[in-house]
Amino acid sequence: MANPEPVRIERTSGLRLKLLPAGEFLMGEPWFEDSRPAHRVQILRPFYFGIFPVTQKEWTKVMKDNPSGSKGADQPVERVSWEDCMEFISKLNEGDSAGGYRLPTEAEWEYACRAGTRTIYYFGDDERDLANFGWFRGNSKNQPHPVGQKRPNAWGLYDMHGNVYEWCSDWYDKDYYKEFCADEIFQSPAGPGSGYERVIRGGSWETEAVGCYSGVRSFALPGTRKPFIGFRLVRNAAP
Hints:
Elements: E1 7-9, E2 16-20, E3 23-27, E4 39-43, E5 47-50, H1 56-63, H2 82-95, E6 101-102, H3 106-114, E7 165-171, E8 185-187, E9 198-201, E10 217-220, E11 229-230, E12 234-236
């Protein structure tokens, strides 16, 4: 896949997003029961995807507080629940003329992370290389780190492996992928219609290397606030 269009910087929020193309990919990870079977997914429309997780500086600008346990303006905001993220997004959309911010779907997140790859990580299959691309248990010294310090994926997106888990919009269902068929193409799936937990993706600073795979699924209750969970924003592109 070709490299997406250049960065867009939203004037009001200061958020940096990349316009990702519509496309098709193989979603899933055969090593984990809730991540199989692999299935073809088509992302129907281009969309903007945050280059970095939302930082504490960006959160504070909107919410006027900073719930994070490990403080740092350029570190990802953490200890934010899915519900807190919804409040942030609501306030951001009210105050930003661009509007339309939201959490990514699980399919959009994995599509963005893979950036056209089908390997375990977006850089390949060798976990010994993970330290060059993300913060995880093996190199984080048990704490999050400022965004953008490791190498990005082919689409210029940073911290997709490790640092903090990222909330997605979907409800989590361990059997959800079993509803898909290998010989069909599913268009922009939005996840189950209901559930108890929400999906989190990407692994974190306290996660083993295996938990940072591109296709690994994790979950948490919507009210959960943990020092290893943050989020990233997307925005629909103009039709």
